[in-house]
């Protein structure tokens, strides 16, 4: 007698594990789709910012000293970005501050934005803290509706 019937034994524990892993996979894929889809605001071209003309400052605390960043704007564009009364002690303790600020200021005035700036990996933390201070000053300068 040759029978082709096969008996399959499934353990309930294996079925539960499979269902749990499939559920987690569905949740993970859904989470990735929600998190990494393009934002509608990011795809649209940005309009030029409107500013209240003037000079705006923001500060960074370095140790026990404050370092003031000054941003000069007119109604439609950023005119200049610089330090206000940079102390010799700060330039001695933080020698990268001035060169990084000059590089960032050139890029910001050219691009009229603090987005998509380029800086080296060696100066990333200095650059990020300066960009944060510049953003805070520009936020003060923006026209409020």
Description:
The model has no long low-confidence stretch (mean pLDDT 86). Helices cover 47% and strands 17% of the residues. Strands 1-2-3 form a three-stranded antiparallel β-sheet, with helices on one face. The protein has helices at 12-36, 40-43, 88-93, 97-111, 124-141, and strands at residues 54-62, 65-73, 78-84. It folds into two domains: 12-37; 54-141, Sufe protein. Chain: A. It is built from five helices and three strands, in the order ααβββααα. It is elongated and about 95 Å long. Strand 2 and strand 3 form a beta hairpin. The protein has 145 residues and is of the alpha+beta class.
Give a concise summary.
With 145 residues, this protein is an alpha+beta fold.
| CATH architecture level-2 label of the largest domain | Alpha-Beta Complex
Biggest sheet details:
3 strands, antiparallel
Helix count equals 5
CATH hierarchy class name of the largest domain: Alpha Beta
Q: What characteristic shape results from the CA principal axes?
A: elongated
Proportion in β-strands? 15-25%
Helix amount: 40-55%
Distance between the termini: 89 Å
- In round numbers, the mean pLDDT is 86
Radius of gyration using CA atoms only = 28 Å
Fold-level CATH name of the largest domain: Sufe protein. Chain: A
What structural category characterises the helix and strand content?
alpha+beta
Q: Give the uncertain stretches in residue-range form.
A: none
Strand order of the largest sheet: 1-2-3
Q: State the total count of DSSP E strands.
A: 3
- Please, how many domains? 2
Order of helices and strands: HHEEEHHH
